[in-house]
């Protein structure tokens, strides 16, 4: 059974599209991880701005089958992130963050798709996703992993390492990540990777084929949707990451049909986890849990064209069904009126696992892949319409840190503001500054935080640095002591600042009364002086 991916919303969308062009520039501006802009990630931002999904389009060259059929080319490239599609004598314009024409190299796509910024954000602690979307045979796997066929997967490790010609976005990203991580040696990175596929609505662990029993997708408040018992491999070098890619690709479900000799029959998700320590205020060390997922979706297919039968027909039905759910989620999320309502994430495993990337707390890049051939016009228009809609999806990225560390960091920041206010109020009232720390420093005889020569700032109370593992080593009692101490300090500051504020206000009003009295007395004095002058005369 062929499932039609175009919903009513799509059909209506063709009319609406022409009027939507104006907002493209606005959307570009709103994107936190734009192609040009680079985002500062020096400190943990607990509440980042909203940003749109970044969308680029890639148009592959005509394939031998299309050339042999003498297919017309339906796409034009006027520049500036635009692609025009010829349909029934009319030109349909689409605009994206970037458009890659048929001749573009893999490296150009990597450099100009915003992938570098996405990876920087993953290093900075955000959950990032790059996913390739498009009909079967449109170049999704080629874009992500390069021209690698299942028979030649050994190339991914040996040849790819020395031959960037065979790289896809994933290999370029691996090299970029390892390079950046090496430059940030002080952040103490731990890198891990997992690789799974969703085949016929079952999750399979591609790095643990012996347990080829479907893994379960679960939900928790802290993690959102996640795959239970997924094998996560620790990696240290670029070669280790290449081996993860190679191992996973060998186990991926691939089959041949009329439109693609090596068609992916599953959606695959390769995730690189980047845990890093960062030193925040008062020497507090927090561990950021960034990650980047590369999602190679199976392509939508018209089974009349692909000639799928038997097993491949069942696969096609499952692929189309889950892509339909993805399309419904994208449609709902891109509509400002529906965004706050029900989003059907739970209707497929794919949308559950992409929930955080679409309308959630992650940062997302979508690569829409299409053919230039007029033979597949309706599929091309469909892909570009969804891509256009995806640009309107708003995410609210947050740095992923442990909730307890996040709380401590928030308290510390609140305390810093109170401390500054305290300092300011004391200055105004000409009170002496606080001197003694509340906590003895563990490494100094006098319990004071060690200071550099010439450092004349008022001494701030020392807060003990809390490492992620510290909490594991401490008994619950000890943990609650340090947490409650923080609360106590915060409480004390708040009470003291409140008292200082009151005192300040009293002084201000007393000052006003004095001024008034001064004015009255002065004018009385003037009056008396004048009287006295009159008497003397
Ligand atoms: N930009 C490109 N340049 C050259 N060849 C390409 C390009 N994109 C795709 N191809 C070729 O087109 C064919 C189909 O590509 P690919 O397998 O990546 O498609 P797909 O979208 O992943 O398909 P499916 O959804 O069926 O898995 C492959 O032989 C691939 O090498």
From TrEMBL:
Q: Where is the composition biased (Basic and acidic residues)?
A: 448-458
Record-linked PROSITE patterns: KINESIN_MOTOR_1, KINESIN_MOTOR_2
Which residue windows does the record flag with biased composition (Acidic residues)?
A: 15-24
| Keyword tags | ATP-binding, Coiled coil, Cytoplasm, Cytoskeleton, Microtubule, Motor protein, Nucleotide-binding
- Which positions are tagged coiled coil? 490-517
Where does it localize? Cytoplasm, Cytoskeleton
| Chain intervals for the UniProt region annotation (Disordered) | 1-31, 428-483
Q: Where is the Kinesin motor domain?
A: 52-393
Q: What SMART domains has UniProt attached to this entry?
A: KISc
One Pfam family in the UniProt entry? Kinesin
- Care to name a GO molecular-function term for this sequence? microtubule motor activity
Q: Which GO terms describe its biological process?
A: microtubule-based movement; mitotic spindle organization; spindle elongation
Q: Does the keyword Coiled coil apply?
A: yes
Kindly indicate whether the keyword Nucleotide-binding belongs to this entry: yes
Gene Ontology CC terms, in alphabetical order? microtubule; microtubule associated complex
Alphabetical list of InterPro entries matching this protein: Kinesin-like_fam, Kinesin_motor_CS, Kinesin_motor_dom, Kinesin_motor_dom_sf, P-loop_NTPase
Q: Where does ATP bind?
A: 134-141
Please state which protein family the record places this protein in. Belongs to the TRAFAC class myosin-kinesin ATPase superfamily. Kinesin family.
Q: Which PANTHER family match?
A: CHROMOSOME-ASSOCIATED KINESIN KIF4A-RELATED, KINESIN-LIKE PROTEIN
What name is this protein filed under?
A: Kinesin-like protein
Give the species: Phallusia mammillata
